[in-house]
């Protein structure tokens, strides 16, 4: 699933490790989500959206 | 349960990993005791000591299973997916490999007897390789 996490993270000058720590997952998970190799669970997706003060559909884009 | 605060998830993960390592070492130690104890540490004709060692290995093994389940629950979702994929491959390899050996042996195709310990050892190798492959895949 396409997402804007890399851009949103870059806007805040956070590293993948910074974001991972804020969300409570591993850095590898953030990297896998950013490279669209792995779709996060709903709780993690909601935590990401909440952290960026956005709606979940503004972070994750339906590519179908 | 995995904490969702900034540091809790890491703390939980480290704790469950340390516990798993301790249980694994304990299990290997009791396995070695049960395997090599008779004859080396006590007379192999003393079944009480041998039964005690085997029972200790079984009990510690159950503890290891519980520790592994907690370790799995303590991982974040991607790590858990990698582990679960590796476990599925390991189970499949053990199942298919085991039954292939059984039917080959029944058909008298196996020339040399294979030690039963080869199967869990093989499954261990498959699991480690599958975990490494998963880590590389989602790197």
Give a summary of the structure in a few sentences.
Chain A is mainly alpha-helical and 64 residues long. Chain A has 5 helices and 2 strands, in the order E-H-H-H-H-H-E.
Structural class of chain B: mainly alpha
What is the first-to-last residue Cα distance of chain A? 9 Å
Structural category of chain A is mainly alpha
CATH architecture annotation name of chain A: Orthogonal Bundle
User: Count the helices of chain B. How many?
Assistant: 4
Record field, number of beta strands of chain B: 0
Number of separate strands of chain A: 2
Number of helices of chain A: 5
Oligomer: heterodimer
- List the secondary-structure elements of chain A in sequence, H or E: EHHHHHE
The whole-number mean of residue pLDDT values of chain A reads 93
Mean pLDDT of chain B: 88
Query: How many angstroms separate the termini of chain B?
Result: 25 Å
- Name the overall outline of chain A: globular
Specify the helix fraction band of chain B: over 70%
Low-pLDDT runs of 5+ residues of chain B are: 1-8
């Amino acid at each position: 699933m396409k997402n804007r996490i890399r851009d949103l993270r870059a806007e805040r000058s956070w590293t993948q490790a910074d974001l991972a720590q804020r969300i409570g997952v591993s850095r590898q998970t953030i990297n896998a989500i950013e490279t669209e190799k792995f779709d996060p669970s709903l709780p993690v997706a909601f935590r990401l959206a909440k952290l960026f003060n956005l709606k979940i559909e503004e972070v994750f884009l339906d590519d179908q | 349960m995995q904490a969702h605060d900034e540091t809790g998830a890491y703390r939980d993960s480290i704790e469950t990993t340390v516990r798993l390592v301790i249980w694994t070492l304990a299990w290997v130690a009791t396995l070695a005791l049960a395997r090599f104890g008779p004859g080396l540490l006590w007379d192999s004709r003393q079944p009480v000591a041998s039964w005690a060692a085997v029972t200790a290995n079984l009990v510690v093994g159950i503890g290891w299973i519980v520790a592994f389940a907690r370790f799995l629950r303590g991982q974040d979702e991607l790590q858990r997916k990698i582990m679960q994929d590796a476990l599925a491959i390991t189970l499949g390899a053990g199942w298919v490999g085991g039954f292939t050996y059984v039917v080959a042996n029944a058909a008298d195709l196996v020339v040399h007897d294979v030690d039963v310990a080869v199967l869990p050892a093989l499954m261990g190798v498959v699991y480690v390789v599958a975990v490494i492959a998963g880590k590389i895949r989602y790197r």
